[in-house]
Known about the structure:
- The structure is a homodimer.
- Chain A is mainly alpha-helical.
- Chain A has 7 helices and 2 strands, in the order αααββαααα.
- In chain A, helix 1 crosses helix 3 (39-51), helix 1 crosses helix 4 and helix 2 (28-35) packs across helix 3.
- Bound molecules: iron/sulfur cluster (2 copies).
Amino acid sequence: MKFSKATNYALHSMVFLAVIPSGKTIGVKSLADVQKVSPTYLSKVLTNLVKAGFVESVTGVNGGYKLIKDPKEITFLDVIQAIEGKASFFQCGLENNIHDRRNCMIENVMNEAEQKMEEHLTLNTIAGVAEKVNADMITHIHTAAN
Amino acid sequence: MKFSKATNYALHSMVFLAVIPSGKTIGVKSLADVQKVSPTYLSKVLTNLVKAGFVESVTGVNGGYKLIKDPKEITFLDVIQAIEGKASFFQCGLENNIHDRRNCMIENVMNEAEQKMEEHLTLNTIAGVAEKVNADMITHIHTAAN
DNA sequence: CTAATTATAGACTTACAATATCTATAATAT
DNA sequence: ATATTATAGATATTGTAAGTCTATAATTAG
Ligand code: SF4
Ligand code: SF4
């Protein structure tokens, strides 16, 4: 089971946004270049992050995206759910009443497993990885001139 | 993120196989009926469980499938991986050398999260859920006459 | 031995969501 | 006024999951 490419792009974009000087913007072109993805597609991904309230977009010359929420407060799970939604691992698909569905053991095990995963993704923030990121990663991203 | 329907079918089939009297077989038709899925498709799913060494198939009249491994020894993760493979949550997709890839923090967090999930799926076995399954579930499945 | 039953395998189709592109529009700075 | 930037909607492409169809092989009952 894999997370989508969109989620991958979103996580990387958030890290890039977190490592640049606070307040500066990065254009989608720059973010797209470094991740080898088309700007229009990445733009759609980033729009989800805007809607989630993590970043803000600025149109016009020297515009782009910038963080508007403290990256210490943005967890991996937050970013993942902003892109993938909240559908859970497992859902009983049988509408017929084979049996009493209360306390389905299969569903319980799966949901608990999902919870373990989510716990860990909640303990790790964008700020947490941003501060450990290798310096040469930063040199590849360009903030707006301004 | 969701597990596939095939995984859902596989888990249910394993539970059904675990709750019937040991040694008896269940035909794919019966397993398919109760899960509202086509027999030919379910057959493909079950073949993966055969290849994984959990069940055995018996052709001919009164044939079908039966467990050949102690369900106490078959974990949820075993079944899931038999169907979905072992691709992990996250993989760095950038071949260019943006930066030093050793100790990628993003990948680390994701893999740790996956590990937490897998730990829990390893602690739970088919036997574990089979013994807690509601009795009326069993009445819906039919073993070979024999 | 024959016929019915059952699983297997391969080729094929269908359905659907992820990924991506294109274009028109709106907002902003210079 | 013009260049620059993001947004949104329509559309196209790709890839994988899901499902079907058919021929074949194995087994058992009679
Ligand atoms: S065992 Fe759980 S998932 Fe399966 S049909 Fe029952 S309630 Fe639904
Ligand atoms: S941050 Fe990690 S996943 Fe991203 S390009 Fe670097 S090594 Fe790959």
